[in-house]
Amino acid sequence: MADQTPNQGSNPQPTPPATPPPTPISGDWREQRRAERMARREARRQMRSGRPYGWVGGAILILLGLIFLLQNLGIRFLYNWWAVFILIPAFWAYVAAWNIYQDHGRITRGAAGSLAVGFLLTIVALIFLFNLAFGLFWPVVLIAGGLALLLSALIPR
User: Fold this and answer.
1) Contact 156, 113 (CB under 8 A)
2) CA–CA separation, 108 vs 150, rounded Å?
3) What is the pLDDT tens value at each position of the chain, 157 positions in all?
4) Which of 12, 93, 107, 153 is most buried when burial is the number of CB atoms within 10 A of its CB?
5) What torsion do the CA atoms of 73, 60, 97, 145 make, to the nearest 10 degrees?
6) Residue 89 · residue 125 · CB < 8 Å
7) Distance of alpha carbon 66 from alpha carbon 46, whole angstroms
């Protein structure tokens, strides 16, 4: 048998990974990173303070509690209490429109679209909540949709 020696040309040795460059001794880069982190934190804090996300859950629970309390007392003014849940996305549509308005300083097409969605959902929720005849109010939904399209066409991009 012949000696089996490894072929040196086909199996090269792996090269060691490159070492990172040495870090500078001065602390300037650390101060810069710290300042960037602080600026990002402050921007997040300002964004959170201007938006009403914190109290929404509490407001929903209070509203549902009042509805159930009035029904237990025999006062039925809301016939389809489940329609309150339609108001939740309507509320968020209004919040989205407000945030877009705050970001751009004017009403944009996005803000107008969010307002239209919020308004349509509010109309549908009120029809169900107060047990109104949907057949009487469906023209209002058409008018609101037409106004939304007209408004979005008139607003500059």
Assistant:
1) no
2) 13
3) 555 555 555 555 656 556 655 555 556 888 888 888 888 878 777 766 655 566 667 777 887 788 788 878 887 766 787 888 888 899 889 888 888 888 888 888 888 888 888 988 988 888 888 888 888 888 888 888 888 788 778 877 6
4) 93
5) -40
6) no
7) 33
* C-alpha 127 chain-centroid distance: 27
DSSP 103: H
pTM value > 0.90: no
Instruction: Dig out the tokens for 86 from the structure.
Output: 């339609």
Q: Helices 109-129 and 84-104: crossing angle, nearest 10°?
A: 160
Tokens of 87: 């108001």
Q: Phi and psi of 74, rounded to 5°? A: 90, 5
